[in-house]
From TrEMBL:
Signal keyword on record: yes
Predominant cellular place of this UniProt entry's protein: mitochondrion
Domain of life: Eukaryota
Keywords recorded for this protein, A-Z: Mitochondrion, Repeat, Signal, TPR repeat, Transit peptide
Cellular localization per UniProt: Mitochondrion
Family under the similarity heading: Belongs to the TTC19 family.
Organism: Tropilaelaps mercedesae
SMART domains linked: TPR
One GO CC term, this protein: mitochondrial inner membrane
Signal peptide region: 1-34
GO biological process, one term: mitochondrial respiratory chain complex III assembly
Full protein name: Tetratricopeptide repeat protein 19
């Protein structure tokens, strides 16, 4: 794999399974105009720390929230604390710890009557499949992803085939979004194993979901299109990858995007793979400038890697 190509990123977590939705599901959502519940407030602080990559602080906040939940004998709040603690462990690559916590959350939900095809159970199953994928336990990972996708497909079977024209209620939109997330996660599993055709099929379906749920110009939709273009590059379908990347960098929705440098660099890399050194130099150079302005250090490093390879390619051609 070309080293500076952006890695496939995960689909967004479904809105109803984010903080507000699951807190409501657990009966913890604060009432309007009422003082915010201290457990909810502490959990939110932990989630914000998690989003900033401050894992130690996030874990401290969730342990505090868990203690508060246990002191008031609130088992629903305890369950949610365990769920967020599992997310923290997974983000910090503590796979065994994350697995144990997710299994405990699933056990608790099932014991209170949550059905096996509930969206919350499916989301946890997808995260467990991700853990098994990271461990290279492909049998468990693929079994998990297939369960998630098949369960969600069955749930919205009446919408499949006429997705773009369908009118969705809140439950259907959530289930559909979760389906898209699971397909993108499964695609990432295949990408990591060099199975690009399987990944492309899944991401193509995930893109259809993203367009329906988020719209054509939403960042998540753009990221999936980026990943489809990357897969086309891996499959040596350079014409298709260049077409997608040119559409992305020429889009008004991307002009102010924090991912613009990534898209530019990937376009340059695709041109380089196709032998067009001039275009590769142009776009990787632009990517470097944009990354500097936006303080996007990973994208800057990728652009510099692309430019270094271009220099090496030119030197090799000069020797011939």
């Amino acid at each position: 794999m070309i080293p500076w190509l952006s890695r496939c990123r995960h689909f967004l977590v479904p809105p109803s399974l984010c903080l507000g939705g699951l807190l409501a599901f657990l009966g913890l959502e604060p009432k309007k105009k009422a003082k915010e519940d201290p457990v909810v407030h502490t959990i939110k602080q932990g989630i914000l720390a998690l989003q900033r990559g401050e894992y130690k602080k996030a874990e401290q906040m969730l342990h505090l929230a868990l203690k508060m939940s246990q002191e008031r004998l609130d088992t629903q709040a305890e369950t949610y604390c365990f769920d967020v603690m599992a997310d923290i462990a997974l983000a910090n690559n503590e796979l065994e710890k994350a697995e144990k916590l997710f299994l405990e959350v699933m056990r608790r939900l099932l014991s209170t009557g949550t059905s096996q095809d509930d969206d919350a159970i499916v989301e946890i199953s997808a995260k467990l499949a991700n853990i098994y994928s990271k461990r290279r336990d492909d049998s468990k990972a693929e079994q998990g992803y297939q369960f998630c996708i098949n369960t969600q497909r069955e749930k919205i079977s009446g919408l499949i085939g006429n997705l773009q024209d369908a009118s969705l209620n809140a439950a259907e939109e959530n289930s559909l979004t979760l389906l898209g997330m699971c397909m993108a996660m499964y695609a990432k599993h295949f990408i990591d194993r060099g199975k690009y055709r399987e990944a492309r099929d899944l991401l193509t379906q995930s893109l259809e979901v993203a367009r329906k749920v988020f719209g054509e110009t939403h960042p998540q939709t753009l990221v999936i299109r980026n990943d489809l273009a990357l897969i086309s590059t891996m499959l040596k379908d350079y014409k298709e990858s260049i077409r997608i990347f040119e559409e992305l960098v020429g889009s008004d929705a991307v002009s102010e995007s924090e991912d613009l440098a990534v898209f530019m660099c990937n376009l340059g890399a695709s041109y380089l793979a196709n032998g067009n050194i001039g275009k590769a130099q142009e776009y990787c150079g632009k990517a470097k400038e944009i990354a500097k302005k936006q303080n996007r250090w990973v994208a800057l490093n990728d652009a510099e890697g692309c430019l270094a390879d271009i220099r090496q390619r030119r030197e090799q051609m000069a020797k011939k």
